[in-house]
């Protein structure tokens, strides 16, 4: 039986430079009211490595770590129906207002997708990936994506250059 699900609000501030988009939080994340709440999801350990930080246990500190690094986080789906937690089971989805978020935070200059599913849903609802945001499709951090942690981490390290503030990127 499919359940009607609702995503969380975005994590973003005026310093955000990269928007990471997932699909829809899984069942455990929804129950915990936390993005990437499944203990085997590699998202938070990857973010800690990307940010050169120890992984905080506290969810509020994890969110602060993202914002300090210039990373915004949201999902393509605002609402959907889904049985279980697999992206392939998502149906009857309504997208979040990503266009409004990008207008509200003009410092965001890149979009990264947490896996092919997020990019596919974005294309379905918003058309081609917006080239002005240099979209990156990164390896899914989901435990259902059976790829070694180091291989996922290597893919996600491509975000590092995008996290450098524009004024620093132009310095010799």
UniProtKB/TrEMBL annotation:
Its EC number is 3.2.2.15. It holds the Pfam family UDG. GO terms for molecular function: DNA-deoxyinosine glycosylase activity. Residues 9-160 form the Uracil-DNA glycosylase-like domain. InterPro entries: Hypoxan-DNA_Glyclase (IPR026353), Uracil-DNA_glycosylase-like (IPR005122), Uracil-DNA_glycosylase-like_sf (IPR036895). Keywords: Glycosidase, Hydrolase. This is DNA-deoxyinosine glycosylase. It comes from Alistipes ihumii AP11.
